[in-house]
Every structure is written in C-alpha cells, then in structure tokens.
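pinging the channel bc i need a second pair of eyes. not urgent but kinda urgent?? the chain im working w is below, pasted from the shared doc
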Amino acid sequence: MNKWMIAGVALSFLLASCSKDDDNTPQSGNNTNVNGGAVVSFSSNIFASVVVEVTGPGTRAPITAFEPNAQLGVFGIPAIQGNHNSDCDLFNKKNESDFQANLFNACYTYVPGYETLQTEKLATFPNTSNAGLMMYGYYPYTEEAEWREVNRVAQWAIPWKLTPSDMSETKDYMFTGQTPTWYSEVGTNPIMLNFQHAFGRLDFSFYSTSKQVCDAGYRIQSVTVYCNTGESGWMALTDGTLSFSPKDLICLHSTNNAGITYNTPGESVAKFMFPPEQTLIQKITCQVKDGGNNLREYTIYDYKYYGYDISIKKGKTTLMRINFLPKDATLSGPANVDSWTGGNTVDENVKLQ
C-alpha cells in the first residue's frame, strides 16, 4: 500500500455521545445505545474551504479543509481481535447481526457550526466482547460502492472518473486504508484516519526570463495534455489502487487568461490529476494570446522528440516550469529533469513565434 500520507491533517473520529437539541432525537449521555455498544460520532474539527499548496515540486500537499456540505464515506467493518476478521464474512455478511447497518458505507456531511459531522443514522460499536471496527474512510462519498475485483483481489471499491473536457472538475479521490479500532483500547479517545491521494498530479507554471516577453502582454489561455491512461474505473478502499482500461485521451485545463511572471515561476495555473504509474504523457501544448490578441499554440513537450518521460507518481506532484523566450533567443541546453528521489520538477524553454 502506498505510504504517502496526508501530512499534518486528518479527520478525527470521536467516540462520544451523540446528542442534538431536537426533542425527537434519542439522547445518549452514557455513550451507549439501547442495543448496547458505544456510540460512534465524528468530529467536525475541519475548516470550511479546500486549500491545496501547488507551488512546490514535492509530495502532494494535503487537503487541509473540506467545503461546506462536503460528503465523506465511511465503512466500519466489525473485527474480532486476534482472529483477523475470520469470524466475519464481509461479502456474505456471516454474523450479520454484528455488522453496522448505520456504518456500512455511511455518509457523513460537514455542516459549518456543528461540532460533529452530521448523519441521519446513529452508528455504534458491535455489542460483542472485544468489539472492534476496521475503519475505511474515503472521499467523495458515493452510493455506488461495490464488492468487486480490483487488481485481481475481491474488495470494496468506489467508481472514479476524470473530466477530460475540463480537468479542473476532476475530483481529488482519497482513501484512508484500514485503521483497526478496538473500543477496549480506544474508549472515548479520538480515532485518527489519515487520508491519502489516489491520483498523481501534473502542474504547470509559466514565466519568462526576458523583460521583452513580459512587456508584450502574453496571456496563457489553456493547457492540453495528450495521454494514454484511464478515463474511469474503480478505486479500492483498502489501498487506493485504481483499475481501468487505458485509452488515448485529450485533457484540457483552462487557465483563465493567466499572465506570465518575470524571472521566477509563479503559482501553478493548470493542475491535472491522473492515475499514477500507468499514465503515458504523449504530448503537451498550450494556447497563448499575444499583445495583439492573436491566438497561437506552442508545444511544451512531445515524448517522441524530447528524450525523457514525464512520470505520474501516486501522491506526488510533477511541476513543469515553462520559460517563454523571444524567438531569436539561444537555448542554453536540454530541459533539466530532476530525479524522483531529489525532486519532481521539469524545466522547459519555449521560444515564442
């Protein structure tokens, strides 16, 4: 399982009483349900907007917050301590009475102003000796979770998809993997689930070391990535493995008339997400308007001629820094491609026509 974890930020799962002001809602101040078993609630100690750091070339920065009304999925699978779930059959639901009907692909919603994530149904630990739950969290929530084969292993998975016509609309699919949680050990202490990114990212920033270019008023309109990868498939909840059938795609990301910074690469203006390891980047182009509002297309990369591959790594960002130069400029040498162990930055010079 990939070990690139979201650093510093995680959802906190608090085993505590679940009470509301609604008179029709059962109170649980003693932290037990009428059927036994401790009540499970989820802390909403998260912020109200998504913030992603995109200027650095290292590990993909964490989502440090969720948008209002963001929906997260949680599986709480009963576990028997020491028996490795052998007493519970996930697919056939053997010992079905021990399964959590209200924590089996449960949907939790972040609502600003509430101390806990909101859900319509109460969830509890199983009422058994040494009761435990294997927690699996994922984002975004879907009702279409299925027990199916992913990477030749039968397991729970959710569907995923890219949005080639507007890659800014592609969801940031995340998973937590398996987190064993025993009530006898945890009690009412918070349960931490660390989310990881299933995709790898490819970012673009544009600049020029030429004052002449910066003064000419060039504006970036869009970036297009031609690649062979999956457009849709399934993500395993255990480790974020993505299954798909590869195909040739043309993926577009608008850049909202972005400018070109002088001398130093600016903030990334196009941010693509792709399945890691199995995505072949074939060609990259960008649309640029000059000061006269004339639209031109420039090739940033072509794997047939450029002599290096652009890798997509799980949970990491490859940052391409594009330096626009006057058409009569002399290029100093080939693009600099840092090793994956030392960094994930690709520098490329492009001559303007």
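so The chain has a mean pLDDT of 73. and Residues 98 and 215 are 69 Å apart (CA to CA). — does that match what u expected or am i reading it wrong
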